[in-house]
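Sharing a chain and its predicted structure for anyone who wants a worked example. Both blocks are below, sequence first, tokens second.
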Amino acid sequence: MNQPRVWSGRFRRLFLNNKFVLFLFIALLVGVNVLVFSKISFIFNPLWVLVKTIVLPIILTGVVYYLLNPIVDFMEKKKVKRVYTILCLYVLIIGALTTIIILIVPVIREQLLGFFENFPAYSQTIQTEFEKWIGSDLVTQFQTATSLNTQEIVSTFSERATTILNHTWSGIGGLLGVVKELVLAIVTLPFILFYLLKDGHKLPDYILSFIPTKLRPGTLTVLKETNHQISSYIRGQIIVSMCIGVLLYIGYRIIGLEYSLVLAIVAACTAIVPYLGPAIAITPALIVAAVTSPIMLLKMVIVWTVVQLVEGKFISPQIMGKSLKIHPITIIFVILTAGNLFGVVGILVAVPGYAVLKVLANHVFDWFKMRSQMYL
């Protein structure tokens, strides 16, 4: 009679009370669930379509929300109703957009048309200079010493360029689809933003109502930290990008670089992507400066270097600070991975998304350490 009890006690000690075995069992269950869901993934296609449809409007609305919500909260503390503040902000935004359209858009349009009209001449100039450089004595000596076939390199480069161009033309349909989604997102943005600014402060309490009572304090902490990470990054990155655009525009105007406004706007937009954005933004400026003259190229490099030093030493530390606490190498890898997985949208949400996942992972790990008692 005691034999079954003995075996039951041994089984409990070896398996049920063994944390490592229990962890392996949970991992096995998770793996089985992943396998099952991968076999019936077609069921989730409508859900995936829904996510792709709403993700861009949500991202754009979230960015504007984090920019405007501090103003609405501040005015609410001054006994001004949120609705009145939101309506006033809408009027100011409409006025600012109207001013930009009337004053700045014609200048941008003129510079863009000029740039595209002169682009064939720029390409021809770059090609001529490249051929001169290939035929120089220094390159000939290097080619003789290393047995390098420059003709083959030029041919390979031309083939790659042709392939990229063909892919670009074939991707115009996809680009039009992206433009359509962007237009729809912009159209729906004011309506979503209004209700989010009006009732967004009630969202944490609404989420907590679905959480068990014992887990609500920890969940509230996670929500607050997540909100702080996202808001700090979005506000800081946009302010830094605007500062870079303004400084570059001033610098380009001082040295007399053509298409200064367009080049500064491109730099400001790409600066939203940390570390990789400036490397992308400098390319068109380098082309325009190099075609203009070697002196202009030198001036442009000096302006770019000064702006980057000012941004790195003064602007970013004051605005961004150390709020994210993410190593630069980690940020670069996260951006590259997100870009390969999700395209342009992945690049834009890579850093704040990683910051949110980091907050969640830290709290889950702290909970595991507390419950498992394996780190005492």
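Comments welcome. The CA atoms of residues 105 and 120 lie 24 Å apart.
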